[in-house]
Amino acid sequence: MKKFSKVVSLAMASMMAVSMLAGCGAQGSGSNTFKIGAIGPLTGGAAAYGLAVCNAAELAVEEINAAGGINGYQIEYKKEDDELNAEKSVNAYNTLKDWGMQVLVGSTTSACSIAVSENTKADNMFQLTPSGSAEDCVKYDNAFRVCFSDPNQGIASAQYISDNNLATKVGIIYDSSDVYSSGIYQKFTEEAAGKNFEIVSAEAFTQDNNTDFSVQLQKAKDAGADLVFLPIYYKDASLILTQANTMGYAPTFFGVDGLDGILTVENFDVSLAEGVMLLTPFAADAKDDLTVNFVAKYQEKYGEIPNQFAADAYDAVYIIKKAMEAKNVTPDMSVSDICEALKGAMTEIEASGLTSAKMTWAANGEPNKEPKAVVIKNGAYVSAQ
């Protein structure tokens, strides 16, 4: 009897060992669903960005699942809040990794995306940031982006202002403490050389002194700037517009994707944003079927008109779908094998979405697509063209 019990115990121990080894195998093994995670600031001052990204990704996942999934497999989706903090973004990544995430849509902002990319590189997990625009967001070969990079936004802004004769004298107010803002500023000034406008003032601020912009505005006004370029985020921009109005200064204000969200700032008089222009790949008033349907569904589900960040994230999920289908990716593959397949697919596929009718990618993670501009009229974004 004792001998029989010993044999059974040994057999059970062997089975447990095999089970433990299987559990320690490549992440994703044996799964019947793809697990896609998203990270962004869902609370705090930049919540308009994070909520837009995470909500639109969720909407895209729901649509794809309803249409049969990816390669016949459904998607599980989970989002995490990083509060616009790089350390918390890494914590959010680890939470999603423990959940079983196989592909990351994020992070939403540049500094957070850069921080998380150190982990996705170490894990060889595919990372597609919808809106992380700093150059270093895609410094590793497993990371790609949907939006334009900071340099490209600066270059395109200078070209657009010149090509459309928007100004003769330009003032700039930028955040020297932020990699996003300072990167755009640098490329804008370089591209402005030889254009049909003159930069007459360039004044910086930091996040330690971003409540009083009277000095920066006065210098632009005294220099005769008829356009002020704002490569900054919408919360700071709302203060600048309010203070410019108080001092009777009414130039054209022109920004980039960081201004998308200014109409949502609490207690901000949105009439002060009338005529503000921004370079963005998405206009919610576009009449193509894809945009009309997206805006209607998003507004019905989340109670607001989607911004450019939402469009980037919506496209991101469909881009992942297209890349997975191109390489016949299945959810039982390891995170690393999925990453290798998607890295190869990204340089081969051509995608069409909300932010461009044609998108391709270079091996360095950068997208190729055409920029657009919108202007705020009657409290809404409309196409500037």
Report what the structure shows.
By secondary structure, the chain is an alpha/beta fold. It folds into two domains: 33-148 and 288-370, Response regulator (Rossmann fold), CATH 3.40.50; 151-280, Response regulator (Rossmann fold, 3-Layer(aba) Sandwich). Helices cover 43% and strands 17% of the residues. The protein is built from eleven helices and 14 strands. The protein has helices spanning 2-23, 47-66, 86-99, 110-123, 150-163, 179-192, 214-222, 234-246, 289-302, 308-326, 335-346, and strands at 33-40, 74-81, 103-105, 126-129, 143-145, 169-175, 198-205, 227-230, 252-255, 277-280, 360-361, 367-368, 372-377, 380-383. It has a seven-stranded mixed beta sheet, with helices on both faces. A five-stranded parallel beta sheet has the order 2-1-3-4-5, sandwiched between helices. A two-stranded antiparallel sheet has the order 11-12. Helix 2 (47-66) packs parallel to helix 10 (308-326), helix 3 crosses helix 4 and helix 10 packs across helix 11 (335-346). The radius of gyration is 23 Å and the shape is globular. It starts with a helix and ends with a strand. Mean pLDDT is 91; it is low at 1-29.
